[in-house]
């Protein structure tokens, strides 16, 4: 399909609609967004044979003759008219040839005699509106929304049940208050009758007494309301205190878990050190069980004892068996280098301290073994 400046064949005759069904346009949008190319899809029916000068034009709705086209494209003739693929055709209109207004247009297939063989539904060239956007929701999103709605309905029902319970509780309190008012009224009625018989009050005295009694009743009701408010406040305080204790308990559980993990880590580290000591002794041709136990205190071993080793210095027996006055020469089991006794112990201590690290059991952040206080502060921050 090639673009050309040659004018297409048209006709000035007013057209009828008898041939409009020989070419059918497919997948025509309601509107096309300006600034983009437009692809026109159409199908050739079995009774129509395309020819070389056939073309497809874009016409403004209300056109009378094929001379009123806005723009056009030549059609491509299929190689084999009998194949199924030859029936499905398309042409593409470049964006800079398309209309710039928002009038209604339609595609029309015009043969080389200027006769219209097919027309599409109307469409527009305008920007996309929000109401035109199709919202596509996946099955997973639908299930998630349904689950959320189910939870909201459940929560709403719980709130309704709670409201009904509160209303019932209020009714019970009102009934109880009414019973107490009646009880107070019955309790004070004999006293009022005895006072009336004793003093024989007149109409004014009796009215002053229905008033004092009413005042006492109101005062009693007010006291009962205050007691109920105090009890409610006390209950709220107990609830808050219980909540605080629960939070503290949870924090203590977290700290306990952290300490338990640290304990397990130290046990694993201790096992590693034991195996490392056994491995070093095997390099030196010594047996770990045959060595005397040396406590890791500063009182035993003097200045030559290494306090970093849990089971003492396994090489002390070699030093004692060496000739007096000479430095004991030792060989590194890894790089086979020779060291004196003090340098060898110091090197092993540095290697051990470098391999040891403190790992946070919550965020897995690592700290050097020499920064134990920083590590403990870091772990404590997770509980705040």
From TrEMBL:
Domain UBZ1-type: 357-382
Protein name: Calcium-binding and coiled-coil domain-containing protein 2
PROSITE patterns, per database record: ZF_UBZ1
Highest taxon listed in the record's lineage: Eukaryota
Chief location category: cytoplasm
Keyword Repeat part of the UniProt annotation: no
Keyword Zinc: yes
Location of this chain's protein in the cell: Cytoplasm, Cytoskeleton; Cytoplasm, Perinuclear region; Cytoplasmic vesicle, Autophagosome membrane
GO cellular component, one term: cytoskeleton
Recorded coiled-coil stretches: 135-176
InterPro entries, alphabetized: CALCOCO1/2_Zn_UBZ1, SKICH, UBA_autophagy_assoc_protein
Topological type in the membrane: Peripheral membrane protein
Record-level Gene Ontology MF annotations: zinc ion binding
Keywords, in A-Z order: Autophagy, Coiled coil, Cytoplasm, Cytoplasmic vesicle, Cytoskeleton, Membrane, Metal-binding, Zinc, Zinc-finger
UniProt-listed GO biological process terms: positive regulation of autophagosome maturation; xenophagy
Basic and acidic residues: compositionally biased ranges: 189-226
Region (Disordered): 189-237
Family: Belongs to the CALCOCO family.
